[in-house]
Amino acid sequence: MALSLPQEINALIQQLQAQQYASVVQRARQLLAQFPREFILHHVLALALDQSQQFAEASLAYAQALKLQPNNVELWFNHAIVLTHLNQLTEAEQAYRKAITLNPQFFEAHGNLGTLLQKQGRLEEAISSYQTGLRIQPQDARGHFNLGTAYRDQGQLQEAVRSYQRAIELFPNYTDAYNNLGETWRDQGDMTLAVQHYQQALQRNPEHAGANYNMGEFLYLAKRYEEAIPYFQRSQLDDWQSRVLYCLYQAEKFADFKQLRAEVIAQGPHTAPFIATLSSHYSINHGETDPYQFCANGLDFVYHRRLPELAPGSSLLAELLENIAQTDIAERKQARLTNGKQSAGNLFKRPEAAFRTLGELVKREFSLYQQHFQQAQCALITHFPAELEFTSSWYVNMQKGGHLDAHIHEIGWISGAVYLAMPETADPKEGAFEYGTHGDAYPKLHDDFPSRFIKPGIGDIVLFPSSLFHRTIPFHAEANRICVAFDLKPASHLQTAHSQY
């Protein structure tokens, strides 16, 4: 005996609750062929496709359901989440705003809209959205956590601390909040509090990827390399293999290093700049050909030119210098930096128009960089990302005697700096940008590690593979040396900085 439509719908809902998504999709589509205007069938189909991560088809189903019930707040909210997964951010924002218009007290919609705005670097708007949600529901731990991530991106570290602490008060087992709070204390140079909070996260979840990674990073910076390795291995996060290789190399476990490097090389393309740094150093140290071909000779892939928009006397240059002097941006403690200040947060995500304009200029130069080296047959160019995003951006303001020790940017693809103020010196090397193949106290078996230098002028940009060591040579002039530095890496549409409802 055939089931009636209400019976069919009840059966679909039961299957949906039992997570039998494939069956729901198949039967809902069959029924929609007979009953194309039955709202609940479109809704159930959308939910099943959504839960099975068939986001493009789920979006179409939500759109059909919304044609039948255009004032359904839940549908607009769910459709916005799916559109975010599809990286259709403008449409997702419109959907969240429609849900909020229909129900201004929908605090989850305010929260998710905040994450969407934050992802686009619209930090002031994101903070406002989070705060609106928290006025509606002040006991929302996720809202306080998300607000903390936006404050941290903005360089407002004390506000971030307070937000994370409030999230923990409301949800004492909030491991992500403990971990992020630890990172924020680290940014302020308080490693004791940072480690305490990493450990709090790990006590609650020993497998927490971020806390394991951060503990590994703390231990390797403390030169406790062999202790750091198991933390990185448990994290399986981002460049954890690079970090393990670093620990093995710094501990002079050369045989173990070479074995793990061979395993990593066998896994796929040579696209990890940090591994490129280590492999190059090992190969130079041991007089061998480097088998990791991120770029054959990084010294030949440095790009230097003057930006006409930043010529001395230009309005953009003046505005950038004024913003750096006047804007309230917290300092990020940097052990390698002497006689200078490094800003916290992500400068190009800040609301000031000059910083955003500079970010767009830098992106233009990255395209020109790729074109300039397009004939090169190495992973740096052949696997050059189709879309790049700023991992980080910050200013460094040095005074007389200022310098920055040799280091690399482990989480970039291409790194660089734009120079806004440079001291005049008789010695052409004072205050110069030096790049090379040795730094960070890597173990040396000899001193034959090549390096070169550039003395940038005001308005110059220098771009280089993130695998290269670089440093600022000390200068002794009574003047400031100001640059905006940055890392770009392959773009990721994953949302990892915040929680979504």
From TrEMBL:
Entry-linked InterPro entries: CHP02466, TMTC_O-mannosyl-trnsfr, TPR-like_helical_dom_sf, TPR_rpt
TPR repeat copies, ranges: 73-106, 107-140, 141-174, 175-208
Gene3D superfamilies: q2cbj1_9rhob like domain, Tetratricopeptide repeat domain
PROSITE patterns found in the cross-reference section: TPR (PS50005), TPR_REGION (PS50293)
SUPFAM superfamilies, per database record: TPR-like (SSF48452)
Domain of life (superkingdom): Bacteria
Family matches, as SMART domains: TPR
Keyword annotations of the record: TPR repeat
Name by which UniProt lists this protein: Tetratricopeptide repeat protein
